[in-house]
Design brief:
The protein is built from 5 helices and 4 strands, in the order H-E-H-E-H-E-H-E-H. The protein has 119 residues and is α/β, with parallel strands linked by helices. It is elongated and about 60 Å long. The protein has a single domain, classed as Oxidized Rhodanese, domain 1 (3-Layer(aba) Sandwich). Helix 4 links the parallel strand 3 (79-84) and strand 4. Helix 1 (2-36) crosses helix 5. It has helices at residues 2-36, 48-52, 71-74, 88-99, 111-118, and strands at residues 40-44, 60-61, 79-84, 105-110.
Amino acid sequence: MNQTLIIILAAMVVFLLIKKLITNKNQKKMVEIINSDSNTLIVDVRSKEEFRGGHIENSVNIPLDRISGETEKLRKYNHIIVVCASGMRSAQAKSILAGKGLKSVHNGGAWQSLNSNLK
């Protein structure tokens, strides 16, 4: 029984470390895009209330339930990085925008994580 518990805990630790490495790599890629192309827009897809509670400087707030109606306004940007609280809504937003034909849409994940990497 103890051996099974140790194996489960070890697997969880490995999973969390791999997830953190992938997240850090993705965040670095987002920072590179932001720093290399001034025609990049960060879109925060959280609710207006969540956005008011804190957000990335110069990001715009387009809640997920309105994102498909804002596609034409976003076409002028070379890159669009969508963020939210955890990465779930931003993944949905990326899928919606890509489905509308936008080419360079990136899931920036959690806004707080990206924000801390921008500083």
